[in-house]
Every structure is written in C-alpha cells, then in structure tokens.
Amino acid sequence: MDPQYSAQDIVRCDLCESPVPPMCCDICHINLCITCVGVHLSDDSKDHKVVPFHKRGSTINYPKCQKHSPKICELQCKHCNIPICASCVSSGDHDQHKKIDILTILTSKKELIKKDLQELKKFIRPKFQQAASEIPAQKAGVKQHSLKLTAALNKQGEALHKEINSLIQRKQSEIEEMDEQHLAAITKQEDVINKALHEIKQVILDLQKLLDSDDVCLVSEYTSRNEEFRSLPAQFQVTLPTFSPQEINREQLYQQLGSLSQLLITHPLTDEAARTTEEHGGQKKTPDAVSSPPARLFSDKPLRDKTLSDKPKILTDIPITGYDYLYYVSCLSDEEIWTGGNNTIMKLYNLKGELLKSVQTKSGNVPDDIAVTRSGGLVYTDYQDRSINLVSGTQIQRLITLRGWTPHGLCSTSSGDLLVIKDSDDCKQTKVVRYSGSTEKQSIQWDDQGKLLYSFNGIKYLSENRNLDICVTDYDARAVVVVSAAGKLRFRYTGPPSTPQESFRPVGITTDSQANILTSDLDNHRIHIIDKDGHFLRFIHNCGLQRPFGLCVDSQDNLFVAERDTGKVKKIMYYK
To answer: Residue 8 — pLDDT band, cuts 50, 70, 90?
Structure first.
C-alpha cells in the first residue's frame, strides 16, 4: 500500500459497507459482498460482469458505438480519432483510414500511465514536497533579512545623527569664538573709558582744590582739559552675526541616507535556460526559452510627487574611453552603468569612471542597442546577424534569430518581456514586437486607420512607461510615437508649440517614476521632458550638454546622458 494512504480504512462493500468484499463488478467498478451480488445483478438497465475481487480490472470495457448502438467498438480510427465498430468498418466511411486495435491503445496508454504514476510518486511529488518544506524557512528568512536591513539603516541613521551633531558643535564653536572676539573688543573699550573716568575724577579733585586755594600763582597756571574730555573715546562698530538656515532638501537627504537596491524575483526558468528560436517567415520553432524575470511593479500613481527643477544640475561627469562615438547607456544599478558605441565592445563603469567589465559581441559585430534585464543581465541587438543576445556572467547566449526582419532598438519591460523594433527585408515595414523569453507575444505596426505607425528604417529607440505605454523615438518622422500596452496610438509628440517641427530630431528615450518621458534632441543639444499624455513640460539644457544621445534613469530619477561626440556620460539631477 502507498505510504501516503496507509492510514485509510479497509475495503468495504459499496452497497452495504461489509468489510473485505470478495467480489466486484468490473463494468460498474463497485465492490460487492456475496449477499449484494444478486441485488446488483437484478438491475438489468445496464450490463454487469461480476468477478472475484482479485481479478478486478481484467474485463475490457469496450466503448459503445455512437453510430450503431448497442454495438461495441473494438477498433480506433487514427484519422478520425474515434472508436469504431464492425458496422462502421463495413460502411466504408473509414476505408482509407488507418485503424488500430483498441486493446493495443489500451496497453500503450496503461504503460504510459504506469510510467507517469511512477514518476509522480518517485520524483515529482518528492520534489514538490521538498519545495513546500522549504517555504517556512524562506518566510523566516524574509524577516531575518529585513532585520539586517533595518539594523544597517539604523546604523547609517546613527552615523548621520552623529555627523549632524558634529556639524552643529562646529557651528557652536564658531559662535563661541565670535563671542570671545566681541567680548575682547568690549573689554578693551571698557578699559579706555575707565582710564578716562579715572583721569576725569582726578581733574575734578584738582579743580576743587584750586577753587579753595588763595595761591595766585597756582590758580593762574591752570589750563582747562574739558575739550579733551568732551568727546567719548572712539567707539567700534559692531555687525552682529546672523544665522541663515538652509532649506532642507529632503530628497538629497534621502539620497544621503543610502540607496536600497530593488527586490528582484526571478522566474524559475533563468537566463541560463535560454535556447535559440528560429523564425522562418512567421513560423517559429518554440524551444524551452528564457523567460525574463518580473520587474519592479508599476502603478498609475507616482511613488512620490516630485517637482521638476528650473536649473538641472550635473552631478557627475564620467569619461568613457575607446569609442569614436558613444551611443548607449543603461543603468545596472544606481552606481554602475553599461555603455556602448561604434565598436564591438560593451563596457561596465562605476560612477568614478573606473572600468569594471568589458564584453565583446559574440559575432564581432557592432551592437545596435543595449538594455539591462530585470535580473541584471545585459541584452543587445546585432542587426548584422539578425539576433538578440543575452550576456549572463561570462557567457553570451543567442535568444532569438530573425528571418526576414532586422532588429534594432530594444528595452526590458516591467513584466520582464522584451520590446524590439524590427525592419523588414523588403524595405517597407517597421514594427515593435513583444517577446516573452524567445516567444513572440505581440506585434505593433498599424494604427486604427490601417496606416503604419512608424517610418521605415532610420534611428529608433524605445522605452516602456510606468503606465505601460510604449514610447518610440522616430528620428526620420521627427516624432515620439506613444501607443498603449494594447498597441493603440495615444499620441505623437513633435516638439513644443514654440519649436519648428523640422528642427526636432529625437534619438534616445527613457521614462521615470512620475511617468514623464525624456527624449534627447541631438542636434539642438537638449533633452525634452513631456508628461504621459504628450504635453511638453520643459527642456534640460544650458547645463553644458553636447549632442546628447542615449538616456536612462536610476531608481532615484537621476538622468544619465551619453554624449555622442565627447564620449562622456553625464549624471543629471533634474528634480528638486
């Protein structure tokens, strides 16, 4: 007996519940004691076959023919996939069809059932039981990890408090030093006045004596000193110090506290499970492909209300070497960025400008775009060999190879899918395709009037917004084209009303936590900020930007800009 069910009751008669029934009906599949056999057989509304209990299951219960009742079917028509009887065969309806003995199918299926049962008992159920047994420890681990994070946060808070107290003490020392200087000046003034008072007192005594004296010579020698004493000693001028408190920038203070990396929950099929998908004119061989892990969850409401700054500020200026032209930048974290340009090498830098890692494309071709997946892998498009590739650790795996289309821009979405811009080989069509792993899920190409959403060829990059809109820069069309997650056109942005449309040539694009869309205007040396409904908000310019190209934002909404010609990545704070 299966240990899983070892505690169950003994077998009983299905009619009177007597224990250990010696018989069973192999047609009705019920257990019978000797007394109940006759009762069961008295029901002549259906067939019965009573056999000893140990021979249960030995009777073949052939299906009845749906067409020639009550005949039974001993064959299966493989073409029609239905059981057939002798009358079905003689009717000629299945003459050209292959027929199989139902017993052969029964034997084959029972072998499969036996095999599946064995696998379920020996391997699958234990694996799930093991996984279930690990859940309590995982739940406990969440609390333990949370306590560690809280301890680290409190430690940082104590350090900040200590530093603030130290700064306050430093200011207090400055106040005390100024007090000492002020008191010293007052004391010096006091000494001068007291000295003069002493002299005045003496003069008064001397004059009193002269008034009482009859000595003509002594009185005649008197010289007045009143002019000397009429004016007070020179008074010093004092400008008292004031304290002007700086407005506390909560956002900067929040950043000073430290950054918290995102929670990444990875799909069980990891990047290492990726295999190649070949597309042949719309037909796909679907392998066990990689399924990108889920991203941080987005909602329609911003995480925190933020105000755009009137004067964006460059926080960091990172020189990127080895490129004649720098095109791409993608955030791996708040402290690390992937970059790419006009050669075959993709480079990972920290914010100090230190090179952390270099990766050459698998084919030796120049990548057409790069993006970081939610699990931290790097994906890139290779338009020359029509592939989309994943860099995971030191390995490069080809996720997708296209036929009849060439891949260009790409991005990783909040659900873990990939969005890819593709051009057709016939030079007539451009579309955005959504991939789940290496399976095509969605194609976006036409508007409601049957017109193409995107111009053919030319520079195009894309990003997914927090409201799940898909935002595409169309350089040749001089527009940012925004569609909903369902692929419906929402709006086209062609620049602010005050700017001539012909001067707007968007290139790079990214979105932030407020659902604002940022796009680089290469030739005008500026970046446009527009809201989720296509309304122009303001420019980022007049801060030293030169020919901005690729864009990305970190978790704090700091903007990273790849300058095409200077080979620099600039980190810009554009919120207050």
So the answer is: low
Provide the residue type at 258 as one letter: G
Task: Out of 107, 129, 160, pick the residue that ends a domain.
Answer: 107
- Write the pLDDT tens digit of every residue in 264-283: 665 443 333 333 344 433 33
Q: Is the pLDDT of residue 385 over 60?
A: yes
Q: Do 490 and 474 fall within a single domain?
A: yes
- 152 in helix, strand or coil? helix
Q: Which residues pair with 381 in a beta bridge?
A: 369, 388
Shared-domain flag, residues 146 and 176:
yes
CATH of the domain at 64: 3.30.160
* 210, two tokens: 């002269």
512, 518, 498: which is closest to 554 by C-alpha? 512
Q: Which residue has the tokens 């049957």?
A: 450
Q: Indicate whether 299 belongs to any domain.
A: no
My answer on whether 311 and 189 are in the same domain is: no
Tell me, yes or no, whether 355 and 381 share the same domain: yes
What's the predicted TM-score (pTM) here? 0.53
In terms of domains, do 487 and 427 share one?
yes
Distances (CA, A) of 262 to 12, 296, 495, 524: 59, 7, 34, 35
53 within 8 A of 24, measured Cβ to Cβ: yes
Is 301's pLDDT higher than 70? no
Which stretches within 85-124 are classed as H helix? 86-90, 102-119
Pair 216, 330 in one domain: no
CA atoms within 13 A on the CB side of 98: 3
| Angle ∠(242,248,251) on CA atoms, nearest 5 | 160
**Burial annotation 30-53 (CB, 10 A radius, 16+ → b, else e):** bbbbeebbeebeeeeeeebebeee
Per the prediction, the chain carries an average pLDDT of 86
Q: Is the pLDDT of residue 405 over 80?
A: yes
Number of domains forming the structure of the chain: 3
CA distance 418 to 277: 14
Helix, strand, coil tally for the chain in percent (to 5):
25, 30, 40
What's the domain range around 542? Answer: 271-278+306-575
The last residue of one of the domains, among 61, 77, 107, is 107
Is residue 94 located within the same domain as residue 160? no
Structure tokens at 514: 């407020």
Q: How far apart are CA 462 and CA 409, in angstroms?
A: 6
563-574: pLDDT as tens digits: 999 999 999 999
Residue 457: Cβ within 10 Å count: 15
Closest CA to 236 of 157, 161, 182, 279: 182
Asked if 526 and 535 touch (Cβ cutoff 8 Å), the reply is no
- What's the Cα-to-Cα distance from 503 to each of 476, 477, 499, rounded to whole Å? 11, 11, 7
Residue 16: how many CA atoms within 13 Å on its side-chain side? 13
